[in-house]
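Support reply, case 0932

Customer input (verbatim):
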Amino acid sequence: MIVVDFPDAQNCRASLRVTGHSGMSDKGSDIVCAAISALVQTFAGGVETSMNAKVLGDVETGGCNLTVMVPENFGRKLEIVCEVFKFGFRKIAESYPEHVQLN
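Our regenerated output:
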């Protein structure tokens, strides 16, 4: 099971931790893992380039553990972006509840 820990952004800071494998298919051909990976990569790269964010941690095959910090003038924007991405993770978890858990 994939576990996504994505608490609400606060004080110009957000964190995202993803662990596990969905088990729907073999690694490299699993649509659920691919969907989660696409969201993670887009979130990390998007906030880094569009909000001048400092992204700490790592994104690896099979998971990530990130902390994102933005300048004060981007704090509210970070909260909104996190809600949008959390919606994406939630929809995948609702579609594949035996394979994805969103905390």
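We compared this against your earlier run and they match. Two observations from our side: Residues 2-102 form a domain with the Alpha-Beta Plaits fold (CATH 3.30.70.1490). The first strand starts at residue 2 and ends at 5. Please reopen the case if you see a mismatch on your end.
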